[in-house]
Each structure stands twice: as C-alpha cells, then as structure tokens.
Amino acid sequence: MKKIILNPAYILKPDDGRVLFMDKESVRSEEGDEGYSAFIHPIIAVVLNSMDGSYIQDCIKEASDILNVETDIVYNFIENLIGNKERYSLNYDGISYVFPKNTLILFDNDKYNKREKIDVEKLIYEKLDLRIKRHFTPTDITLMVNTICATDCIYCYADRRVKMNCKIPFERIKELIHESKQFNARSFNILGGELFLYKQWRELLSELNKNNYSPYISTKVALTDKEILDLKNIGIHDIQISLDTLVPSHMKDILKTKDSYLEKIKHSLILFEQYNIPVIIHTIVNSKNDNVEDIKSVYEFIKNLKNIKLWRIDLAESSLYHQNSFENFKADYSKIEQLYNFVKEKNFPINYDGIAPIKKEELTFKERFDNFKNRSMCSAHYSHLFIMPDGKVTSCEEFYWHPNFLLGDVIKNSLLEIWNSEKISYLYNIPQKDIPIDSLCSSCSDYEQCRSLRQVCYRDIMKSHGKDKWYYPDVKCPKLHTNDEDRIRVRI
C-alpha cells in the first residue's frame, strides 16, 4: 500500500485568514521548487496538512473527515499534485492557485519519516482574507551571534567598527527558538561574525535541530577533526566554506591570515569528505583573485571531493561600511568574462550566475517603469526579523544599529511584541507627509501604490545616497532618471 507526504521541501504557515505555502528553505532548494511562495485557501491547506507520510487512504480519510466531504473529492484534488513535474494551476472558489513542482510524493518504503502536522485549529479561520499583505507573524528569523571574525577579509560588507560577542543569555536564545516554533516560523538562521567563535555553538545547533530548524552555516574557520565530528553528531544539513583562492600569497592578501591557514582549510575540507558532510564552496571574486589562476587553484582541489554539492562564485560588492575603499578591492570587470568561460565548461555543480556577463540593454522609460513595478519584494518589515548580538532587533542584516531601523530588544520583548510594535508598522507604511521634501518621494503621485506592498530597498538607498538619506527613492526607481514629462506620462 502506498504512502503519501507533502513534499518536505515545502511548509505550510498559518497567516491570519489565509495560509502561506512556501519553499521550506530560503537558501536551499533540492527536491522543491526554488523561490516558490504563495498563499492558499485554508481548506486547501487542511488537505495538504493531512498528507503526513501515512498510507494514502488514511490521509485522504482524515482530510475528508475534517472537511466533511466525500473521499473522492479529496482524491480528485490531490491526484494532480502527486509528482507533478511542472507547477499546477487550480481555480477554486473563483481564485486561481498555483502549486509548486512535486507538491505531493507517493512512496512505498521508509524514505520519509512522518511529517509533523500543524494543529488543524490554526488552519481554520472565521474570516477569510486572501489579500497580499504583510505576514501576520515573522516568517524568517536570523540571529547574529557575534561580530568578531577569524579572518580580516578585504571585501567584508559588515560594520567592523563594533566587535561584540553574544550578550543574549543562552536560555533566552532557547526561548526565542521555541517562540519561533510556536508561530510556525519557516527558518531560524544563525550567522556571525563567525559562528565557531561563539562558545555555545554546539548547544545552539543542537537546540535548533531539536526544533526542526536547519540553519545555513557559513564559515571561514579551519575546523578540527573533533569539531567536524561534533557537527556530524548534531546532524547538520550541510555547511558553506568560504574559499576564494588556494594561491598562498593571494589568500594572505585577501584574508590577512597566517601561512598555516591554507593547509588547515584544505585539511578541513578533506575531513568533511571523510565524514560525508555536504559542503558548499563560496568564492568571492575581488581584485586579488580576479584571474583564471586563482579560480583554477580552487577548482583543481575541490573537483575530486565527492561531498561538494555546489560551488558558488560571486563578485565582491560595496556596502554601507566600506564605500570609500571599494575601488581598492573590486574585481576588474574586464577579466570576469575569462573566469566565466573557464568555469561554465566544467562538469561540476557550479553556480556562476554571479559572474555571468551582463547584457546592456537600452530600455525605454516605459520598460523601466514596468520592471520597477514588478520588482522583487523586500523581506524587511514584511516577513523577516534580524537579531543582533546584544539583543537589539532590526529587519536587515546590513542595517546593524542604524537608529531609524531599531525595532526592539529580545532581552526585553518577545518576537511577536516586536513584530506587532508601532515602530515596525510605521516603517512598513511610512506616511508620505513624513518624507522630507528633499526626497522625490515626498511629492510623488505614485507614493501609495509604490510603497503599499513591495517597499523600497533601504540598504541600497543608503549605499547610494548615504546613511542619513534612507528616505530617498529606491535606486531602481525610474523617476530618478526621467524628465518631468516622462514622470507625468507613465504611472508606476
């Protein structure tokens, strides 16, 4: 007899009159549909929630009993979602819903453990609300455990003026993890600084694992045999290792490390293979390694390691905190095409989108307006909270302690208190009258439509105009680069 399960790559999250249906991992996508996110009718969510890895007849009967409908109705709904190779569209109650690839999985072995279901009471609402709106509770939580590092990377985007170990008591961190679990947060991620310079990293990873969170771990530390064995026993999903080059002199220039670091990091990678822990290699191309020699040095070492699941290559970027020095370490863009041509021919799992040549297109002002209107949605104030090492909370990891974006303090407040505070509501929907007159936004006739949902990228605004000009227009706003006549003729 066959069993059926909602693909573990997806999650359901109750959200005030509707249910969010999303890719489980905001940074990983293996069996799922990368970047998938939608809201669905609670009745549909009840059916999907019932598909928990039990026998298909039992799952169908559970859903039909809860909804008080015939089992045939449930089966007719789910049959199109079993192993679907493409996204599937369904019209229900006058609304079109799109389901991700491979929504449901049918199996006849023990490949999948039973999935933890959501309490049905959380999926049933007195009032339906299917509007696109700010998430009712935060969906993704990130904890920065410290702002100290084991290296001194020339391209670091962080605010390195502050060197801070974690000041949040570990018992309080555990409470935050449990609170996130209670309101069905999708992820609870951790980062530094450097995670492995946090003394209680083992306990933290174990606690997250117990609560079914698998944070995306990134490090530049050369870990020992004992540390890697501990990671294996904790049950980590994978780990990202930053590796920009294996040319010794260039590595020292980029990371400011000692001579012994190179061999230690290579030894760590070999140990990860021995313990069969999947590894993502991340390379940042900058002025010190923007040549085939450096990229080849990495490739020649990792190509025979059987546990490398992906090699990501990106360009170094400017940030709010080193704008004046970016010219000193940015890659020579005239060389990037050579690197791109080198890696794209390799029979190896490489994500080289970050160094792909950009085709310059002359867009009309109408095309620029359309692109901006359909821009990606920013998670700041919309679905994400970021906790800093002293407990202060903001909504983007590059805001740090910017006074305009401090939302609360987890040592004093719960996550939901912060999420429902007047401050975050205000930042999500700043009245136009509060925008200073030196900003084009203060008199823009499209302000409400522009800011009502997709928001603007405050990080990029501040990178472009300065940290005190956070209220300026989004850097991609087409009205910044059009004349008055065009602004009148085209509406966002």
What's the helix count?
17
Q: Give the number of DSSP strands.
A: 18
Q: Give Rg in angstroms.
A: 24 Å
Globular, elongated, flat, extended or rod-shaped: what is the shape? globular
Average pLDDT for all residues: 91
| Portion of residues within helices | 25-40%
Proportion in β-strands: 15-25%
Helix vs. strand class: alpha/beta
Give a quick account of the main beta sheet: strands, pairing sense, barrel closure: 5 strands, mixed
Low-confidence stretches: 484-492
Distance between the termini: 55 Å
What strand line-up does the widest sheet have?
A: 10-9-16-17-18
What's the gist of this structure?
With 492 residues, the chain is α/β, with parallel strands linked by helices.
Structure write-up:
Strand 9, helix 4 and strand 10 form a beta-alpha-beta unit. The chain is of the alpha/beta class. It has a 5-stranded mixed beta sheet. It has a 5-stranded parallel beta sheet with strand order 11-12-13-14-15, with helices on one face. It is built from 17 helices and 18 strands.
Features:
disordered C terminus; 5-stranded parallel β-sheet; 16% strand; 17 helices; 492 residues; 5-stranded mixed β-sheet; alpha/beta; 31% helix
Give the SSE layout.
Layout: E1 3-6, E2 10-14, E3 19-23, E4 37-40, H1 42-50, E5 52-55, H2 56-67, H3 71-78, E6 88-92, E7 95-99, E8 104-107, E9 140-144, H4 170-182, E10 187-191, H5 201-210, E11 218-219, H6 225-234, E12 239-242, H7 248-255, H8 261-274, E13 279-285, H9 292-302, E14 308-315, H10 326-329, H11 333-344, E15 350-351, H12 365-373, E16 384-387, E17 392-394, E18 408-409, H13 415-419, H14 422-428, H15 447-451, H16 458-465, H17 484-489
Parallel strand pairs: 9-10, 9-16, 11-12, 12-13, 13-14, 14-15
Antiparallel strand pairs: 1-5, 1-8, 2-3, 3-4, 6-7, 16-17, 17-18
Helix pairs in contact: 1-2, 2-3
